[in-house]
Each structure stands twice: as C-alpha cells, then as structure tokens.
Amino acid sequence: MYPEYLFEYPNMNASFPFYMKRKLQWKTPSHRHDFVELTLVLNGQGTETINGATHDMIPGIMVLLLPYQVHEIVSHPNDPLDLYICNFPLDVILELGELDPGLHDILLGNATDARNTFVHFEGRLLDEMQQIFTMIWNEYEKPVSFATVMLKANLQRVLTQFARSSLQAITDMSTSASSQISPSQARSIWPIIRYIHEHYLEPLNLTDLSERFGIHPSSLSELFARQYGIHFIDLLHELRVRHACSLLHATEMQIADIAEESGFGSYSSFARIFQKTKGVSPKAYRISHPRTGRRKK
C-alpha cells in the first residue's frame, strides 16, 4: 500500500501555479505528491522523515521536497511547528536550470544521488530568508500590479540561496563517499522523471526508457523503488489520471475521448485505473468537481 498521493493544490490552474500558506503543523501523515514543496520553519520543533531518513525541524530549517518523495512531519507535543509552506510545479526549478545548469544539478541532484533535502539557515542568512518569505507572503495574500513577477523573482532568490547553502555539503559528501558509490547508485533519476513528465501522454514503457537512458530495465525499476518507493507504471498512471482529471473538470469532452487523450489504450483500462487511483469513477469525479464555463472540444 503506497502512502497517500496528492496531485492537486489550490491555485494550481493559475497562470503562475503557486500556492502558499502559514500554519501550525502538529502532525502530517506519510504522503507524497507530484509537485514541489518548499518549507521554512519559523518556530517550534519536531522531526521530518523523507524517504526513510529523519532530520530535526527547528527554526531556520528549509526543506526542498521534490515530487514523489515520501515525507512525514511530527511536531513536539508542547512546541508545534510554525511553518511557511509553498507549493509549485517542477517547471520552476527546470527554468532555473536554463539560467544556470549548475543550479539545476544541485537542486535536483543530477550530478549525483547525494543531494540535500534541507539546509539550516542562521544569523544574517536566516534574517534574509525570513524577509524574502514575508515579501512572498505579502505579494501572494494581497496581489498588486506585477505580483506574479515579484513572486517568481523572490522564489528564485530563495531557491538559489538554498542551492548555495547546499553546495559545500554536497561537495563534501561526494568527496567522502565517492569511493563507495557504485555506477548504478551514481545515476540520477531526474532526467528520467523529466522525460516521463514531458512524454506521459505518448506510448511509453520501461523498455523504452531503458533503451533511451542506457539502464537495464531491472536496474531502472530498482532505481524508482529505491528513491521513491513507487513503480514506473504507477507513476505513469498517476500522471495520466491527473491529466484526465483536469479535462473532466475543465471541459465537456466525452469521457471516452478523455481516456484516449490521456494516453490510455482503452476505456476499460482507463475506468479501472481511474477508480483505483481516485476512489471514484470518472463520471462521479466530474459531477463532484463542477465548474462553470467549461470549454468544449
């Protein structure tokens, strides 16, 4: 049984699909999602477990959680965590990579599987990060002219500082562990994840990916399981179901046509996988997610 899978968040259909909240976090059950989550601890204490590795959550900790990483947060019973939490698509990080490939590699771990999921800011840097998060929060809560530009610019500043603070630790880790890393462990899954995100509506299978990226199918399957606790086919189905949900919500397309456009080979397989993933039929999902002004196609 996989942890709960989240693939929707408020504001995700906006021109800039960014969502932010500040909340007291007591306990977050184990779950995963297919978008990025950036968290800054303001007050309180607790722990977070990401893919089985647990770290402390104290003021100044910033966590960059990538899609499909499983995580769980537990606060101290007498000192709950006060968090800024931002959700946004992986595209934001991919765009940074176009500006500087080095940023891309550090944030996604493309150079090595060893990447920091969190950093600890203190002193001047912590003050700076808190100020930037406050600016992001103000732009998000009360948007004025060019708010999207300001949001994006400040988010890029935060991600760039996260990368800077991670760089030395990643270098040290790579140097000390380089002799212990096997070729299969040194591979990053992110180029593969990105390819799947870009081509999931096309015919796609493990053999195709194996040939494209030069990894034996069994090794590729192991890579998925080791890093994300998810099988390739489940990831592919979830992306296609997400696309179908968007069409069910926003259009008046026939459900059979949505099944085909979402990459499923038959309506029966679409209906079965949709029911398994969402817990309801495609028709029931459309009824429970009404939207005025649906476009026809």
TrEMBL record:
Residues 190-288 form the HTH araC/xylS-type domain. Keywords: DNA-binding, Transcription, Transcription regulation. InterPro entries: AraC-bd, Homeodomain-like_sf, HTH-like, HTH_AraC, HTH_AraC-typ_CS, RmlC-like_jellyroll, Tscrpt_reg_AraC-type_HTH. It comes from the Bacteria. Transmembrane segments: none annotated. GO terms for molecular function: DNA-binding transcription factor activity; sequence-specific DNA binding. The keyword Transcription regulation applies. PANTHER family: ARAC-FAMILY TRANSCRIPTIONAL REGULATOR (PTHR43280), HTH-TYPE TRANSCRIPTIONAL REGULATOR EXSA (PTHR43280:SF2). This is AraC family transcriptional regulator. It comes from Paenibacillus lutimineralis. The lineage of its organism: Bacteria, Bacillati, Bacillota, Bacilli, Bacillales.
